[in-house]
Design goal:
By secondary structure, the chain is an alpha/beta fold. The chain has helices spanning about 15-20, 30-35, 55-70, 80, 90-105, 120-125, 135-150, 165-170, 185-205, 230-255, 260-265, 280, 325-340, 365-385, 430-450; strands at about 10, 70-75, 110-115, 155-160, 215-220, 225, 290, 295-300, 310, 345-350, 390-395, 415-420, 425. The strands form three sheets. An eight-stranded parallel β-barrel has the order 1-2-3-4-5-7-10-11, surrounded by five helices. The protein has a three-stranded mixed sheet with strand order 6-8-9, covered by helices on one side. Strands 12-13 form a two-stranded antiparallel ribbon. The relative contact order is 0.13. The model has no long low-confidence stretch (mean pLDDT about 100). Bound molecules: beta-D-fucopyranose (FCB). Beta-D-fucopyranose binds next to loops.
Amino acid sequence: MHFDKNFTFGTATSSYQIEGAHAEGGRTPSIWDMFCDIPGKVYKQHNGDTACDHYHRYEADIQHIKRLGVDTYRFSIAWPRIFPEKGKYNQEGMNFYKKLAERLREEGIKPAVTLYHWDLPLWAHEEGGWVNRDSVKWFLDYAKACFTELDSLVDSWITHNEPWCAGFLGYHQGVHAPGHTNLDEAVKAVHHMLLSHGKAVEMLKKELASSTEIGITLNLSPVYPKTDSVNDALAANNADGYSNRWFLDPVFKGEYPKDMMNLFSKYVHSYDFIKEGDMEAISVQCDFFGINYYSRGIVEFSAAHDFMHKGAYSDYEKTGMGWDIAPNEFKDLIRRLRQEYTNLPIYITENGAAYDDTVENGRVHDHKRVEYIEKHLEAVSELNKEGMNIQGYYLWSLLDNFEWSFGYDKRFGILYVDFETQERIWKDSAYRYAAIIRDHKKSHSLQEEIAQ
Ligand code: FCB
């Protein structure tokens, strides 16, 4: 594999999944603290109260990041640390992220910061959460505080992480916080998330006249029909509309897909929550496009299911999540985005795999994760040979962490975390990633040396 000199290698985490310190520094609960308390929602009713205790161990964690040799580290800010109550700013919460970003910079690591990785303050939820259009205002107050205090320390801003999960898993499927099952709410929530994205980008660029790059991260999963029947084609179209186009079309074309608006209208009684100017705001010009890629989808027609599709059997090898390992389909996805949607530089803001890791004599031989990472990096390298302009790759995740409704049962880290002792152990995948990055740097400095 080969990467351009300026290609950035990174690793990623998010606040609720790693920080812990749930009641410290003035933090109040988020919707995830609430959701974890509901029996049956999260594996063994795990929660993020302590998680990886990163809030107290961030200094040591930065040393791990440094040893990996990555150029950049992607983390998210916990909104309830910054605004623990409506309208009440908390400097102590902000200071944590200031210290974190400063320490990263001192070590030569570029902070890439996500504003919303799903931990909506509970006070906002109690006022209707993302379903309430006022959420846009609340988000902008929060974004402004972050931009004002941190912009000089941050290299890239990401407004939202995966509004599909926050919106559809949270408000339609009910498997993420806040656990609602109402499509009417879900499309409103998504609309307000996207609107808050667009308006935050405009705020950073116009009002605050910042030149820091900013974009949004979507999780995308290319969908394939089980057979080449007309019915399965329809199923795949609808599944693609639900998981991909409902987000790509507004962000890049300033409109929701008409076919999906029709399908959804069984549950969505009116689209009058879309106000004049909203779609222009949502399709604001960004500096890059972030993609989280894990797997493909395969579906078949089912009249009994909403939107006429259901998951189909796949004989692909799977990760510990049961997700198909599909680096070729990743290539299809990127080519399609280039054809149909955008020329913006792309960052793969997440990619990685969960496996049941075990520690043997102080080592974790996670060769399947190593393979997964190699295959996907190889795909990135090949895509760039075709001119696809992928400028960076963030491995999910630095640490084993709180994997949402799967609790601590699923380990995505390249560092193993013993949740009893909080010890971090480098898995083989961490050594391999560090070696790939070192080889890349060496080959470029050697080229430069020879060229002189
Ligand atoms: C993504 C999330 C991230 C993590 C990975 C496995 O959907 O952004 O927080 O849970 O999946």
